[in-house]
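Both lines are given unchanged directly below:

***
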Amino acid sequence: MHLIKIGFLIALGFVATAVQAAGLAPIEVPASADDPALNGFVWSPCATQANDLQLGPIIVPAVRGCAIAGEKLPLVVISHGHGGGSLNHHDVAETLADKGFLVVALNHPGDNFSDPSRAGDISIMFQRPQDVKRLIDFLLTGWKERAKIDPDRIGFFGFSRGGYTGLVLAGAVPDFRDPTVPCPEPAPICGEIRRNEIPVTPLARDARIKAFVLADPLSFFSMKASLRAVKAPIQLWSSEQGGDGVLPKSVAMLDDNLPNKPDFHIVPGSAHFAFLAPCPPALAKSLPEICSDQAGFDRAAFHKSFDDEVLAFFRQHLNAGHAP
């Protein structure tokens, strides 16, 4: 897979589906002595009617730099998959923002479309959760709009490796040394695991995150013991056919082993990339491997119901009696 090309074109294909009014702005978490800068996008509730914005060759209906409507808003952080980017799940972000959520999607350094330098290194599996923790730290303490966030209502959406990231943040401990766990990932990571070249960096949950949506998560979690600390509510999605290193049986094992039964959905007729936003025509033509679905599967129709289910889940578990 040509990850840089895929990520770049997905980013350009920002508006694959119709969008309702949502503010859109870039965000950057400054680099520190030990960590690189993080960047991504913020979607926010916006009281102004959307205009067409030009992003490269694509026209985007949104409001650039719109004043954030509302106070003490629930926050959802989005984590992309292997070699992806912050715009991969823009339809989810738009749906949530239009209904009163702040949404921030980041690009994971070293494992995104423009910087795949560490995508094959197992250390990225330890860095990804730290990226999210740093982002939340910044949003709550350093971001100029931090007063708009309700720190008691934070959620997480993750796809593929982003789903793995969410499980770690929820308290799961990956079974890298368990020989019964399959390693369908790219060869460098699997080779490091076989050679026991696993960092000793501790993995820590982030108790600030109160609810998780995980779509086709990459799983290194085979036993109940590895998941026993996961207590937050989870909406879990599985494609029927898997792909890109994700096995449907591994997702089903999560459903069986999580201590609190997740809201589990299997999507009939789907493969792994069905969870990416529907592709605009130019992207579908150039990259059918991520845009084309099996005969009979309608990605655009699926995403209408998928986005609604994600919204309903976060409303249920983050609102605590407040209407966004």
About this structure: Strands lie at 23-29, 38-44, 51-55, 58-64, 73-79, 102-107, 149-159, 209-215, 234-239, 263-267.
